[in-house]
Amino acid sequence: MLLPAKGDGGPGTGGLTAVETARAKVNLALHVTGQRADGYHLLDSLVVFPDIGDVVSISRETQGLTVTGPYAHALGGGGEDDNLVVRAAKLLAEATGRDPRSISLALEKILPVASGIGGGSADAAATLRLLRREWALDISDATVQQLALQLGADVPMCLLSEPARVSGIGENIELIRNMPACGILLVNPGVGVSTPEVFRALRRRDNPPLPGIPVAGFAEFDALLGWLSQTRNDLEPAATGLAPEIAEVLSMLEGQEEAAFARMSGSGATCFALTRHRAEAEELAGRIAASHPHWWAAAGKLS
Ligand SMILES: C[C@](O)(CO)[C@H](O)COP(=O)(O)OP(=O)(O)OC[C@H]1O[C@@H](n2ccc(N)nc2=O)[C@H](O)[C@@H]1O
Ligand SMILES: Nc1ncnc2c1ncn2[C@@H]1O[C@H](COP(=O)(O)OP(=O)(O)OP(=O)(O)O)[C@@H](O)[C@H]1O
């Protein structure tokens, strides 16, 4: 799936004149290394942001927030003020003396909700980027990062949307210089998994950190695969215990010739497969859509 370029209204956007993409966050590796006094778990994770995501836009025609897209229905419940797009807009407006009612936003919800790929965090981050540009705000990157952290631990990394090693609960971010231009496929079996329940179900919380990452990053696909083979997603066994469909997705992905590597992202239930070339991920997504019409499958480039 191709996303519109940053700041480009793109074709078919009607009254939308400013667009920001909200890329999925994929945890290629996720180690749980400890627990803070407040109960939050310390993580060590390699994250990437493929070109698969939601779209946040400024709307000149509607009032408030308009949500469309295949997963718009999954956001029901709390109403507009609970949406992370609105919360991000209000926070930035308050911090910079703007009137949040002066702006109307549109969200195209393409990513499944509560699925381990940080869709809500990505939407919040995209809103901060969009409004900072729209309002031509004279504020520092550090200030925007501080606001992002108030919205959630994953929001600062989504603000950058660059491959990174993240630690703490997500506040320490080290960008990774190189990642191979390989393909990635995301597959979700259509079951929601509660992040707190997954953390509660963990058997161990003191696992070793990730192995070192080469200073130059990973230019070669095989080097990335070699590194990943020494890592885990420590949340995968707990999540699979709560949602056995995850094991079904993983064994299906592992059985595909094009899939060089498969694992769950975040707290699940979305899993990913890496392919040497993007075209292979797209082909695989087409096959899965045909064989498992109730699953969500999307293909893109790793970074
Ligand atoms: C696991 C990750 O997907 C890795 O990227 C994210 O850190 C989860 O981020 P998230 O879905 O935005 O989760 P939050 O809404 O911040 O947290 C939900 C709940 O999960 C638990 N939680 C979350 C993150 C963390 N590092 N330790 C935790 O123990 C806490 O009980 C928290 O109240
Ligand atoms: N714009 C939004 N998109 C998605 N979820 C939102 C949004 N606004 C509020 N939420 C709420 O945030 C919660 C988490 O949604 P999200 O899709 O970010 O989870 P996730 O993919 O599991 O994230 P993570 O990978 O960080 O665990 C949901 O319960 C949802 O109702």
Automatic annotation (TrEMBL):
Keywords: ATP-binding, Isoprene biosynthesis, Kinase, Nucleotide-binding, Transferase
Active site: K25, D154
Domain GHMP kinase N-terminal as annotated: residue spans: 83-161
Pathway the protein contributes to: Isoprenoid biosynthesis; isopentenyl diphosphate biosynthesis via DXP pathway; isopentenyl diphosphate from 1-deoxy-D-xylulose 5-phosphate: step 3/6
Cross-referenced InterPro entries: GHMP_kinase_C_dom, GHMP_kinase_C_sf, GHMP_kinase_N_dom, IspE, Ribosomal_Su5_D2-typ_SF, Ribsml_uS5_D2-typ_fold_subgr
GHMP kinase C-terminal domain mapped to chain residues: 219-290
Binding site for ATP: P112, V113, A114, S115, G116, I117, G118, G119, G120, S121, A122
Pfam families attached to this UniProt entry: GHMP_kinases_C, GHMP_kinases_N
Enzyme Commission designation: 2.7.1.148
GO molecular function, one term: ATP binding
Catalytic activity: 4-CDP-2-C-methyl-D-erythritol + ATP = 4-CDP-2-C-methyl-D-erythritol 2-phosphate + ADP + H(+)
Origin: domain of life: Bacteria
Any one GO biological process: terpenoid biosynthetic process
Function text: Catalyzes the phosphorylation of the position 2 hydroxy group of 4-diphosphocytidyl-2C-methyl-D-erythritol.
Family of this protein: Belongs to the GHMP kinase family. IspE subfamily.
Name of protein: 4-diphosphocytidyl-2-C-methyl-D-erythritol kinase
The organism of origin for this protein: Stappia sediminis
